[in-house]
Amino acid sequence: MTQDLVTIGSDALTAQINPLGAELWSLTDAAAREYMTDADPAFWDRRAPLLFPVVGELAGGQLRVDGVAHDLPRHGFARTSQFDLVEHAADQVRFRLTDSAQTRAAYPFAFALDMAFRVTGWRLDMVASVHNPGAAALPFSFGYHPAFAWPLPGAADKRAHCLTFERNEPQPVRRVDRATGVLLPHSEPTPVEGRDLLLDSALFEADAVIWTELHSRALRYHAPGGAALDIAFPDTPMLGLWQVPGARYICIEPWQGHADPQGFAGDFTAKPGLVMLAPGAVRSFRLSVTVTPP
C-alpha cells in the first residue's frame, strides 16, 4: 500500500519513507540513480520492512507468554502498522509506533518504537529506538530488512557484485526450513572467502543465508564500474542475506534475533537472541548507508 511518502534529503541524496511501516521506500542521488529495489511484484514488492517485535518465524506462528498463545506473523507487525509522524525537517524525520489493543492481542506488552532517518551528504542514517514504558522487562527482537538494487547503478554484471566484510567471517552459516520458517539445527560452510562474498542468486535457492554470530559490524556492497554502498550496523550481532532468486535486489539484513529454532516450544522470554529491556529503558539500533556513486 502506497501512502503519501515523506521526503528528506541533502544536495547529494534524497530518501523517501512510507509512514506505513516507517519503511524506506527510495534512496536516489542528484542524478536520479536509485539505490533501492525496483519492488517488482513478480518477485517481492516490499522495500525495507522493519522487523519487530520478532525477527523471522515463530514456531506454529504463535508467541507463547505465561502459558497463553498469541498469533503473531513472521517478522511481527511493525511492517504493516501505521506510524505517527513525530518530527520532520528538510534533512530528517522521526516516526513512532506505540502499543494498542490490536498489538497487545498479538504481543501482550507496552512499548514505543521510534524510527528516525537523517540524510547528511552521501550518508543516510537510520536509528530504531525501542522504549519500555512498562513495569516489567520487555522481551523483543528487532531487525532491518532493506533491499538494495542488484545490479547497482553503473554496474552491469550481477555476478561481479561482492560483499566485503569488515572482518574475516569463517564461521558457518544457518538456514531456515522452507516449509515452516524455523531455524534449522545444522549449519553449512560459510560462502565467504576471507572477507569477500561474491553474490550469486544460487546462494538463495535454499532461502536466506544467516549468520547467528557475526564478527563484522560493517560491510561494503560493490561491483566493478558501479556504485558502492558502505553499510554499518554497530548494534546488531546477526545478519541475514536474502533475495527471491533472479530478482533485482539483495536484502542485507542486520538483526538482533532470529527465527525460533526448530523444536523450540518454550516461553517467548526464553527464545534465543531476544533483548530483555529493563523498565524505563531504551535500546537503539543504528544502520547507516554511505553511497559512493558510479
Overview of this protein structure:
The chain has a 9-stranded antiparallel β-sheet, with no helix packed on it. Strands 4, 12, 13, 18, 21 and 22 form a 6-stranded antiparallel β-sheet that branches. A 3-stranded antiparallel β-sheet has the order 1-2-3, with no helix packed on it. The protein has one domain: Distorted Sandwich (Beta-galactosidase, Chain A, domain 5). Helix content is 2%, strand content 42%. The protein contains 1 helix and 24 strands. The protein has one helix at 101-106; strands at residues 6-9, 13-18, 23-29, 50-51, 62-65, 68-71, 84-88, 92-98, 112-120, 123-131, 138-140, 142-144, 147-149, 162-165, 173-176, 183-188, 196-198, 209-211, 218-222, 228-232, 238-242, 249-256, 275-277, 282-292. The model has no long low-confidence stretch (mean pLDDT 97).
The level 1 CATH classification is Mainly Beta
Major sheet description: 9 strands, antiparallel
Q: Please state the structural category.
A: mainly beta
**Strand elements, count:** 24
Strand order, sheet with most strands: 7-8-9-10-24-20-19-14-17
Would you tell me which CATH topology applies? Beta-galactosidase, Chain A, domain 5
Helix content: under 10%
Helix count from the secondary structure assignment: 1
User: How many distinct folded domains?
Assistant: 1
Overall pLDDT score: 97
Rg (CA only): 18 Å
The CATH level-2 architecture is identified as: Distorted Sandwich
Cα shape: globular
Distance between the termini: 32 Å
Order of helices and strands: EEEEEEEEHEEEEEEEEEEEEEEEE
Approximate strand percentage: 35-45%
The poorly predicted ranges are none
